[in-house]
Design goal:
By secondary structure, the chain is of the alpha/beta class. The chain has nine helices and eight strands. The chain has two domains: 31 residues, no CATH class; 240 residues, Alpha/Beta hydrolase fold, catalytic domain (Rossmann fold).
Amino acid sequence: MGYIISSMIRTLVAALLAAGFLSAAESSLEQASPMSLTSVYRDLPYVRDGEPRQRLDLYVPTPPVPRVWEKPLTAVTRRLPLIVWIHGGAWIIGQKEDTVPLEWLAHGYAVASIGYRLSGDAIFPAQLHDVKAAIRWIRAHADRYALDPTRIVVWGESAGGHLAALLGTTGDVASLDVGDHLEQSSRVNAVIDFYGNVDLVADASANPAIGTVKSPHSQLLGGPVLERRELAHQANPISYVSKDDPPFLVVHGDADRNVPHAQSVLLVDALRAAGVRVTFYSVVGGGHGDFADPQVRQLVTDFLASITR
């Protein structure tokens, strides 16, 4: 297989040389492995005149031919599936540079990491508006970066998992799309939700500390959770579940002390009741991330392959 790929690369480079797309010096890159180079685009604003957090970083693995992506799409330009990463941090901290799953670049996926306004900047639904705006921006610029707009997988952990789940269930809710590129859809093609929050009211009812005004949940809603039930309902991914939602992979440690495992159970039950394809994996003894269970990696690998192949 390696020999076949190398032969294809040599043929590609020769063709580009003959067509004038490459200089002789650049052709020395033909010995590089496929997808061995990565173009990094940082701090791309997905909202016009937006705030600093309303930016994304884009990592695009490229064939060993520079500048192909700067030219119009041709037969030699392959559109890439995209993983959109949403960081956690209880909606109060975190940044787009946190724990980005860049290891998937080596497997031929482009990766975008989204920044979004935190609860100290604006209360919900600002965070959902932001991640939806980012998805629309990505679709609007898919040609420029050779991305496949039909293979967008959103992946988040903790608060980011919550937003990822909301992206998955609100693809058909037009009222939540505000801002630029409204001609584009914010619907995603699959969701990977790692231990995300789901039902804030249920969480606050089970744990009085979450209902206090200083809890991250209350800060997200702009007041005590149990006094903001309607807004909490709007922040619940289950509120929007329908049979046409994309496939979900949900992973949660059953010993998580930050986000109860029961939160993911609620979401999975609702998705299954609606007929949505969902894979749920409970990490036995797992806490809030940093899973040592090798099955988690395999599940992600298999899920991505099933969506993007």
